[in-house]
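User: For documentation purposes, I need each entry recorded in a consistent format: the amino acid sequence on its own, followed directly by the corresponding structure tokens. There are two entries in this batch. Please keep commentary to a minimum and don't merge the entries.

Assistant: Recorded as requested. Entry 1:
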Amino acid sequence: ISRNFLKDQDSLTSLGLIGMICILSNPYITRDIGAMLSYAASAGMIFADMWCKERKIEGNKKNFICAFMAVIFTMPVLALAGMRVTIMSPVFNILLGSFIAIICVFSVFTTIAGTIPVVCHIGTFMAGLNGVFVKSLISILDFIKTGFSFALINLSHPAFLAVIAATVTAMFVAYFQFENIRIRKIFVITVSIASLLCYNLLDCNTVT
């Protein structure tokens, strides 16, 4: 509406308006974990998209940054809910997003084709193919749950505060000790990964 009548459009303003409409229609939505996660993830992706546009970042790198920021923005909600998140989430979000997009396209096509007698057989075939993609998605989720259990992070666990403290300290140390920006990034990432592995050993009792 704003793009057509006001000639100006802002994603964050649109997200805020959507939030207001949802709360007015159902005030209890503020207690819904799913709604909070969706809203936080959307805000993270919008911020990441704006950041990438300013730096002219495109392609897979942009997709990964958006997925990563979506995970970062949902972490406070997950911590409040006592839920776990895997550190591989950005990668899995990109992979699963492709599967979900294909499933949605097939579902819409199957629904439309089923109403047309001439192409109903094609619709039946597409429905079966869509079922294969759904089963594949479920298999992938099961594989993530079992195969990457070592990467799970319990954000409400007290030991995770040590990971945050180590990362923040590393950022300050890197800023004052290293002039090279690349060395700063490597130092902070190395300390963060090392602290995550230590946390993992304390929380999950798993040798990584």
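Entry 2:
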Amino acid sequence: THTDGNGDTVAYAIPDFTAIGYNGLAVYAYTVDTDGSNDTYEDKELYLQVYNFEQHETKYRIRITDDNVADTLPQFFRSRDAQLSTEEEATHTKLFWYRDNKGVVYIDVTQLMQQGINPDGTLKIKGDGGDSTYADPIETGLRPKDSNESRQSADYRVVEDANGSLFILWTDTVVDGDPADENAAVSQEIFATSLISSGRVVTDGGAG
């Protein structure tokens, strides 16, 4: 439930929920189905909340998305950027999610919390002359070959190698031969997109 600006209690369906804990905090991410109907999909929006264990206080209720596409299946991943000098500077929490049934995007939650939130929990404008915020999603390169079958990639997973580089793995359908041939061999293959420490997409490939 949520109390709106008029003081009324509003109940939302929450189809997706995930959380991560670090440095005395618990950070929650969840999808809100704003009309509570399974017949619509584009009204699913992503929210973030922070709980402080020492103060026993829930801070903020940050609306990450406000658009006309589905924002679902959030996943946190906490990783270290080797380009930064200290452990505190280097370790960042990222929030990945599945956007518009087509691919995975992410934001840097650590950067958002440090620089991008007003005292009332609203998003700060970056001040770069535009209207961008630290909650603007960054593309990962996970884009299925056929957007009409894009929900295949909803089983994505984020992993990290020993050098601190992030990889997103997902499965997709591969047809050996003519897709119109009902006798063509069909298989599920594993694909990957690599993100180096700075978050820039550098490679995209598949593995059988």
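Summary note for entry 2:
Confidence is low (pLDDT under 50) at residues 144-151, 197-208.
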